[in-house]
Structure formats: structure tokens, C-alpha cells
From TrEMBL, chain A:
Residues 87-344 form the ABC transporter domain. Residues 21-42 are annotated as: Disordered. SMART domains: AAA. It holds the Pfam family oligo_HPY. SUPFAM superfamilies: P-loop containing nucleoside triphosphate hydrolases. It comes from Thauera aminoaromatica S2. One of its GO terms (molecular function) is ATP binding. This is Peptide ABC transporter ATPase. NCBIfam families: oligo_HPY. The lineage of its organism: Bacteria, Pseudomonadati, Pseudomonadota, Betaproteobacteria, Rhodocyclales. PANTHER family: D,D-DIPEPTIDE TRANSPORT ATP-BINDING PROTEIN DDPF-RELATED, TRANSPORT ATP-BINDING PROTEIN. One of its GO terms (biological process) is peptide transport. The keyword Nucleotide-binding applies.
From TrEMBL, chain B:
GO terms for biological process: peptide transport; transmembrane transport. PROSITE patterns: ABC_TRANSPORTER_1, ABC_TRANSPORTER_2. It holds the Pfam family ABC_tran. The keyword Membrane applies. Keywords: ATP-binding, Cell membrane, Membrane, Nucleotide-binding, Transport. This is Peptide ABC transporter ATPase. It comes from Thauera aminoaromatica S2.
Amino acid sequence: MSIIERALAKAKQEDRAAVEQAEGLVHRPQAGQDAQGAVAERTGDVADHPAVAAAVEAEIEPAALAPAPAAAGARRVRDARAAAPLLYVEDLRCAFDVSRPWLERVLAREPRRWLRAVDGVSFAIGRGCTFALVGESGCGKSTVARLIVGLHEPSAGRIVFDGRDVAEVRGSAERQQLRSRFQMIFQDPYASLNPRWRVERIIAEPIRVFGLERDEAAIRARVAALLGQVGLSPADGAKYPHEFSGGQRQRICIARALANRPEFLVCDEPTSALDVSVQAQILNLMRDLQDELGLTFLFISHDLAVVRHMADEVGVMYLGRIVEIAASRALFERPRHPYTRMLLAAIPDFSRRGRGDDAVRGEVPNPITPPSGCSFHPRCPLADARCRGEAPVLRELDDGRRVACHAVEEGRDTIEAGAEICTEVS
Amino acid sequence: MNVPHIDRMNAGGDLPLLSVRNLRVEFPRRRGTLVALDDVSFDIARGEVLGVVGESGAGKSLTGAAIIGLLEPPGRIAGGDILLDGEAIHALRGEAMRRLRGRRIAMIFQDPLTSLNPLYTVGEQLVETMLTHLDLTPAAARERALALLDEVGIPAPAQRIDHYPHQFSGGMRQRVVIALALCAEPELIIADEPTTALDVSVQAQIIALLRRLCRQHRTAVMLITHDMGVIAETADRVAVMYAGRVVEIGPVAEVVRAPAHPYTRGLMGAIPVLGAEVERLVQIDGAMPRLDAIPSGCAFHPRCTEASARCRVERPELLPAGATRAACWLYAPARENTDGGPQ
């Protein structure tokens, strides 16, 4: 919570000088020429619309950029807590109506039924850092990704990008300008590329949509540069997606995502559809691009080993809620929430041949009718009456991580798990 | 009911249960023939778990399909032998193959929903399979179905036996599929990506279940998966496939600890591991070749950092390489000597 509070406090400062300083200090050295272009484009856009410009000058723009100065020094430190948040979400909720059709429902005298896919999720992502959400299918991690990029409308909660509440951005020009700073990479590179378009048109689409370049020759040059950046040849632009393998297609998706020079990429299981050797290529590429362009990633995956490799900070989700959120190393070396521990125990690993059968029990319950209290209690070895009746909230522990578990809070987890943790440390 | 089974087990003696020799599978096309499996050889002993690992397109699922006689036309076995307990089964057709399938060799597929019939209760499907293959009365078959459902860890089997597949969760469905595979007491189970469609916590349970049941029933398993972690935890030996060929085969601990073939080494390095933090993963540049463009010599040579002139022209046999066998000229003895037949 402290990160969010700090960010809010900073966001309230209205210091015009700081803004200008931020523009110069933060963006330009970060991404070199790329960011310079983006900044120029943004200021250009704002200037084009006097009404917008006035509104921006009055309040929104200072609020938006005020937290940035802190980021100037902190960016290179890949400690998620030290960096100022580029994006944070607060108490994000999304419920889907899964009721039967009206007539059937009325005849059967059934109430409406809601699937709470995301149920009060809060986290912050530091500039230049990678925040990962992990969990099993149906835990809501992809829904969070879709909420952030605006593919779903949240039922409640706030998404604040660079100090600005995304929901409060009105007007298409301004909205477009904000949206041009995020991009998304999807899981399935076979489904996310239009098979009837040539690769150059696919990659140029964001450039054209956001109007970043008007000149055809400049667009072509930019597409060629992007293809080179992701390890393809500029000549590949004339081909169609079906001429590429899965890994190459994912490279095309990454090139498209980078086309409008975003600062923030949402990657929803970007390597789940790929083979391991290709996955390694894509993960290496993503890390190189992050270092080169200063990108911030929200990384969604079910694969804990991939998450450990990529993330600076990790949130573990279970049935729409974050149960544990911690720096990557701390989480993997010393998981605290029983669900995190169970997930880690479940991963097949080279070193753990022939372990017992009962490390893991039960299955993810139906999210339409989640269990009472802590939704993990039916599978939890530490559950007691309080867990069954009362839902735990995230509480910060000594080492800065946050865990939503009554057992951890009451210290009940140490009896059974103490030995296990000790052996891991020693 | 178990009498013929026990007979076969005793008669088997030291013969491997399954022996695949120089298997070649082709897909004839108008423009040339695609060779999908080329000179694949391996053995599986009774009660042994052989992991078959490889990336998509390596031919691992096709090997399984060829053994159980489920190659999709126009795919056909163009050469080699498949021996089950010394008996050639690759030429069996129609009724003879059908009797073998399910009875002596069972198969578990990736997606439990498509391998169960949605119109029948799980009990009906189990009973039908048992009545087809075993000499049982319907009542006895139902009794056994109940026992099996209990054994694979389905809670309240007496109620669940009359449920339809859609009433089960993914993990429970895969348990039903395992019960179905085990119900005729087969000697070999081919499990093709049995846990790929499942979440990791469920995967761990299914893998543990499969391992326990096969040990109890002394069933041999050919475990096909792309997940090296699953292989490392489950298999006794592992065969690594690349472009329709076995490139390395050996005891799983050795292959994981000290992989011999450059492809296996790359594959192991490419997998992010929980226990270690690495700055960069090992990267095998390029991609698996397409079947119509398999390189000459060793199929891996264009991606191999250690390829030599010989690799480009001459295809290596499986050669002894430490505790494993690898199809790589790095392990060729000084004098050319290819006595290294399949293991």
C-alpha cells in the first residue's frame, strides 16, 4: 500500500517546473531517440487542440508527470519497490454476468449470477520493471491484463497510468494519446496476426492508427527498423504470417507492439504457445528490448519458472484475488502463502525426482460459487474456522511482501512449514 | 481374468516388452514423400517409464500413433518393426489390431474431454471397455469400474460413476481417462501429453497418480511430452527426438545432469529453472526444420554450434556418449565404427 500512497501524494503536487524537467530528464535519456519522438508527438498533439491543452495545463498534465522526477534516478535499479510506479491499479474489480437468459431466469426464480473474475486487485508497477501475475487458469490474471489495456471495462476500481486515472481521460484525442503509450502482446501468435495482411502492413498499423508518421517512406523505414530490432530481416515485411514459424510470428507481434513506441507492454502468456527453445529466444529478446528501450512489463504467465526468470516483482493470484505479492527472489526462495507454496511444490523440477504424492491436493473451485472466507481454505492444510468464515486481506510483513492469509498473520504457518523453510535456506 | 496376462509376463522373461526397430513413417504427397519418422529405434522394458521428449514437429506423437496403429492416412509405416513381446504388431490390421488396442496397449490423450464420449456416463464407458476386452459379467464390470474410480482418486465414486464427462473438472476427467486406460490391465500405456491441458497443481497430482498406478500394475509407460520437468520426475529413461529421429537416449538422471547431444544440451539450457537465476537463457537459434526440408547429414547441423563438415553429409547413428547414447559425430570413435545399434 505504501507505494500507492506515495504515488498519490506525489501525484497531487502541481509543479509545472517539475513537469518540464521530467520531460527532459526522464524520457529522453531513457529511450534515446525513440522516446524523444514520442515526447515530441505528445506535446504536438496537445498543442493541436486548444481545449485539451487548457485542460491539461490546468490540472491533468502536472498530476500526470509529477511522479516522474523520482524515476529519473531509480529507473536503472531493477528493484520494483524503489522505482516510482508507472502504473498502479487500486481495488480493481471486474464481474461478468453469467446469469441465464431473462425469461428462463424468471421462470426458474433464479437470481442473477455473477462471476467475479477480478475481485479487489491492487498492485503497482515501477518504471522499467517487470511485474508478473501468476496463477492457474481461471484465477483472473488475463482479465487483469485486459482491464488494463481497456479491452474490458472494470466494474470498480482505478487504473492509474503515469499518475493519470485512465477512466477520467475524456476526449478521443487525449485517450488515443494515452493509449499509444501501452501495447499488448497476446498468447497465440497464430490468432493475433491477420492472415490476409502482409507483415509490413501489420506492423505499420499502430503507426498509422496513432498517426505517428504520415509519410509512406518514413513508415517503411520504421517497419524495417522494427523488424531488425526483433531479429527478423526487413525483407520479411513483404511476406504473410503463414510463412513464419510460431516463434517468428511472436517476434512480429512484438515488433507490432513496439511500433508506436510504447512505454508499457502487457504480455499475456507470450510464450505459452511456443516450444522451449523458441521460448528462450523470445524471453531473451524481451529482456534485451527492456534494457534497450526502458520498457515496463506486466507479464502474465502460469509458468513459474518463466516468471522467476523475467519478473522483478510477482503477484500470485487465486480466484480473482492476489494472495501474495513480493519481490521475485523473496517469493521463490521463501514463499509464505500456502497457495504459493503449493504451486511451487507442484512444478516438476529436475532436482526433485520421486517426491511424495501428496504435495498438492484439490482443484481450483468453480469461480461462480467460490468458497466462503478465504477462497483457498478447502485446499489449505492450515485452514481453521476463521479461514472458513472470514476473507483475509493483504497485510505487509517485515520483509515488505504482502500476504493475504490468516495463518501467516497469526504465525500458525511456522509450525508445519518451519522445518521445510529452514532446510531450503540452509 | 488375469491368467493370460500372467502367462505373458512369465513368458516374456528378459525380452523387452516393446521393441521399435528402425521405424520409418512416411506421408506420400503429390510432390514427393515426407519422411516424418526416420530410423527410430528404442525399447521399453516391463514396468519401465520411457519419456519421449521433443519440440513440436519432432515426431514424438507420431511414434505413439504408429505403435498403436492410429496413423492418420496417408501416413503409413514404410519400414522397420514394432514388436510387442516379440510379436510383430506393425502389420496388424482391422479386428486383430482392435483387439490389441485397449487390451494390451492403451492410450491416454492430451485432452480428456475429447477422449471421453459426452453422451455416455463414465461408468458406461468403463463397463463397455471391460466387457469388450475382458471376460466379465456386466455386474462384475461395474464393480470393477467402481474400484478403479476409487483407485484413481475420484471422491464418492458410487455417485460419480453415473455422471457424464461434462460434470467432471479437467483433472477429474483425466483421472477417468486413466481409469479407462487401466481397466483392461494393459501391458503398455502410451500417454501423449497427458497433463499438457491441465493446470500445474493438477498436473502434479496426475503425474503422481500415473506413476503410482503403473508401478503397482507393472505397466510400462511411454510418456510423450514436451516438458522436460515432467520427464525428469516421472521417467526411468528418456528418448530425445528431433526432426523425426531419436538424437539421444539414456537414463533420465544422466540425460538431465549431463546431456551429450548438442541439441539436448541446448534444450536443457533453454528451460528456465526455479532453482537458479540466470541472466540469459541458452538460445538455440533457428527452428526445427520442416519435413520437406530436412537438412542432409545430421538434421540438427544448421543450428549446431559444433557442426563439422562430416555432420553436413553423413547422418550419425546413436553412439555411446558417457552414460547415454547420442546421435552425434562428437562421440564417434577415432576410427569410423558404427556397431552402435539401438539400445
